[in-house]
Amino acid sequence: MNARYLKEVPLCEVMGPEQVLVAMSNRSKRSAIEDLVDVLWKQKLCTNKSEATARILEREELASTALGDGVAIPHARLDVGDTPAIAIGRHPAGIDFGAPDGKLVHLIVLVIWQPAQAGLFNRLFAGLVSKLADGYFRNRLMEENGAEGIAAALADVKIDMLAGRSNKCDADMLVALQLLESKRRAKASGLGRQIELARAELPGSMLSRFDKLMDHYGEALVEAPEGVCRGCNMQLSSSFAAEVLSNPETVYICERCGRFLMHHIG
Predict the structure, then answer these.
(1) 48 with 122, same domain?
(2) How many structural domains comprise the chain?
(3) What is the CATH number of the domain that holds 75?
(4) Which one of 30, 139, 241, 248 is most buried, by most CB atoms within 10 A?
(5) Which residues have a Cβ under 8 Å from the Cβ of 110 and sit 6 or more positions away?
């Protein structure tokens, strides 16, 4: 791995104005992804457009990468060298990305990074989510006059190789993987590729626990509504229950049965 990714680096080191589309007008998620992949190809940051597009769309089929509030971060693992390939698109009219809040997406950040850089995307993702969670900042991106302004506004977003993983990404993939594994164990066929993609998104320690829980209980992730683990029916402590309630997209672990916990599995 390139030594530069052993520390925190700003997004401006891996992305410039030439990787920004300021006025997208696509009518479908697929065509928007194709246009952003084409940006990377023209900058020689991606050598195989069709493969990159297919990988990203495969990931979208597992779970939408739309975060809500008009933002989506489609991504995939592909050999693009030590530096992640990033393209940003602004869609003034908005496009349907299957967002959890039902809103159209106006800001699309497409990321491709090599498989050997485990966790890199999730750390970049965490920095972007923190930045894009601010409505004022989102409005600023929508109002910038050109690609230079958008790139400059995002320049200080950090890729932090020492930070924790994205809770939302882990949660989405655990939900998807449990559903796929349940179908596979029920003798459904043709799920191998989807399972492979979901497993590739999760850290090894989480996968190891997931596999052990599935073998032992037949389920690894359960809900904890009203402060009760649905797996073992244990009442969570009041402080733990309050934390789970206030962070519905965060994955926790039941102190009694060891299952993964979420307040609600969508």
Answers:
(1) yes
(2) 2
(3) 3.40.930.10
(4) 241
(5) 33, 36, 37, 40, 56, 73, 74, 75, 86, 87, 88, 89
Query: What is the domain-level CATH number for residue 239?
Result: 1.10.287.1490
Which 3-state string (H, E, C) describes the chain?
A: CCHHHHCCEEHHHCCCHHHEECCCCCCCHHHHHHHHHHHHHHCCCCCCHHHHHHHHHHHHHHCCCEEECCEECCEEECCCCCCCEEEEEEEEEEECCCCCCCCCEEEEEEEEECCCCCCHHHHHHHHHHHHHCCHHHHHHHHHCCCHHHHHHHHCCCEECCCCCCCHHHHHHHHHHHHHHHHHHHCCCCCCHHHHHHHHHCCCHHHHHHHHHHHHHHCCCEEECHHHECCCCCCECCHHHHHHHHHCCCCCEECCCCCCEEECCCC
Between 151 and 166, the higher pLDDT residue: 151
Q: Are strands 105-113 and 85-95 parallel, antiparallel or unpaired?
A: antiparallel
Q: What is the pLDDT of residues 111-133, one digit of tens each?
A: 988 765 555 555 566 677 778 88
Structural domain including 238 reads 167-262
- Give the pLDDT band of residue 20 (cuts 50, 70, 90): very high
Higher per-residue confidence, 266 vs 131: 131
Q: Using CA atoms, how far apart are residues 129 and 145, in angstroms rounded to an integer?
A: 23
| Amino acid identity, position 158 | K
Give residues with Cβ within 8 angstroms of 16, minimum separation 6. Answer: 151
